[in-house]
Amino acid sequence: MRFAEPSYLHLLWLLIPVGLLLIWGLRRKRELIQIFFGAEQGARLVSARFMNLQKKQALFSALALFFGLLALAQPRWGFEWQEVRREGVDIIIALDVSNSMLAQDLKPSRLERARREISDFLNLLQGDRVGLIAFAGTAFVQCPLTLDYSAARIFLNSLDVDLIPVQGTNLGEAIRLSLQSFSATEKKSRALILITDGEDQEGMAETAAREALEAGVKIFSIGVGAEEGAPIPFPGGFKKDEAGEVVLTRLDESALKSIAEITGGGYVRSVSGDMDLENIYFEQLQKKVDSRQLNTQREKKWQERFQWAALLALIFLLIPWTFDRKTASEKS
């Protein structure tokens, strides 16, 4: 047996105080009758049979509560094997981890905001495989394509600017490594989400984007940061150039738009930290990228049995009511 909502089983501890309360109530009722009528007269007015009925009502009420909580936990037993076909898209998320992503024009920082948005994005995925690539002056695969979103989230949380010793922003390297990370046998159902401030210092991004077009990979780029620029935090203050001036990191939208347009993808500018990954996934990626069957596997389909517990709860609720009707008819 297993339960779909096992958290409700913790409520079964309520049966202990409820049971004690019912026992106390029965005893208190007997004491009040004896106090009001006296022990001898009370015994004549209130028969032992009536008190037994009261005990049974209390017992059935507790059983109704027990089976009601059991029904909420949704017990399941017995299963049948079912073939499950998974359809989806292979999605690589390439995240810029250069020093410029430490700028705080998006709170708490560009990088931290991006990690949070990607974590929320993983909750949206519907059978798609996802992989992570970190890049700065070079790039490397942080998490290969997987259906295990929990594992992907663990790798995501470890992304930081200290991860890659070669600083800079090499968009072309990130795109090429992403192409290598996709399956070589599949030429469709592949997408790259590129999250960066777009300061491409190698100038090879458009060439790599054309390679992505030939490989059938659509790029959806997200621009992070403000066009007016922001200083880069550095030990003792902010990063400065050789002349002693504070270096400002600016969003280069034109490069990111061009990359997306070449592949037929889309561009989104992050506004106040909202990277609109939900819109990219539902309104753009799912419409522009055809899904394919990723795998077929057999899974156990457990049979729902909560209705039996619910039926028993209803029966035990109705039994005390029949006792009351029976007692009333006997008195009349």
From TrEMBL:
Keywords: Cell membrane, Membrane, Transmembrane, Transmembrane helix. The chain crosses the membrane at residues 6-26, 58-77, 306-323. The keyword Ribosomal protein does not apply. Residues 90-285 form the VWFA domain. SMART domains: VWA (SM00327). The keyword ATP-binding does not apply. Signal peptide: none annotated. Pfam families: VWA_2. This is VWA domain-containing protein. It comes from Candidatus Nitrohelix vancouverensis.
